[in-house]
Design goal:
With 96 residues, this protein is an alpha+beta fold. It has 1 helix and 8 strands, in the order ββββββαββ.
Length: 96
């Protein structure tokens, strides 16, 4: 299950590991098919450029890794989710 995606449409996504060891095929907007194999443990994983780069049981840990990956791609990241300043729209953080 997708928890958060890059607001600038980069291929950086936090997934909740709801079905360990599940294999899922994803059809991208350009028509290519990518296969995601969910890890057998850990509650969250970070999917960057079609591969899992980090797994963790802590949302805080995985979100910090997510913010670091987004910072490599653009300089004006929203950072970690702040429920006062941000809201989620289609799994993307936007300002309120």
């Amino acid at each position: 299950m997708i928890v958060r995606q890059c607001a600038y449409d980069h291929n950086v996504v936090i997934h909740k590991n709801t079905k360990p060891n599940m294999v899922k095929s994803i059809v991208k907007s350009d028509g290519t098919v990518t296969t995601v194999t969910y890890p057998n443990s850990k509650d969250y994983f970070l999917w960057v450029d079609d591969e899992i780069v980090k797994t963790s049981d802590s949302f805080e840990t995985i979100e910090k890794a997510y913010v670091a990956e987004c910072a490599k791609r653009h300089s004006d990241s929203h950072g970690r989710i702040d429920i006062v300043k941000h809201k989620l729209v289609s799994n993307k953080v936007v300002d309120r």
